Amino acid sequence: MDGLESVPEWVGDGRAAALFGSPELIRAALLPEHVGEFDAAFDAALSAARRTLRLDQLRSTLQVWRRVALLTRENTEAARRAELGL
Fold first, then answer.
1. Predicted TM-score of the model (pTM)
2. Which string of DSSP letters, residue by residue, matches the chain?
3. What is the pLDDT of residue 6?
4. Can you tell me the distance from the alpha carbon of 55 to that of 84, in angstroms, rounded to the nearest whole number?
5. Residue 30, by phi and psi: left (phi above 0), alpha (psi -120 to 50) or beta?
6. What is the pLDDT of residue 21?
7. What does residue 66 show for φ and ψ, rounded to 5 degrees?
8. Integer Cα distance of 71 and 16 in angstroms
9. pLDDT means per 10 residues in the chain (86 residues)?
10. 2 contacts 51 by C-beta, under 8 angstroms
11. Which is deepest, 3, 7, 22, 69, by most CB within 10 Å?
């Protein structure tokens, strides 16, 4: 274990993964105000993967941001109001 907590499974994860299967698709679905946070989180997860040779943090980061992308698609105003703090 690398000391990172995994993100709990959520009922919408399968749908989010089907819609946003790549970092490019996730980023394209986000509101402009969330793109910088996504970029920073993705870069940090890639750096961790390079350093540890584990993909846990990268998978977890993408899962969380797929959820944000799905929220954005389904309820843009709720996504806009959300303070992500991710």
1. 0.83
2. --SPPPPPP-TTHHHHHHH--SHHHHHHHS-HHHHHHHHHHHHHHHHHHHHHS--HHHHHHHHHHHHHHHHHHH-HHHHHH-----
3. 58
4. 23
5. beta
6. 95
7. -65, -40
8. 9
9. 59 93 97 96 98 96 96 92 71
10. no
11. 69
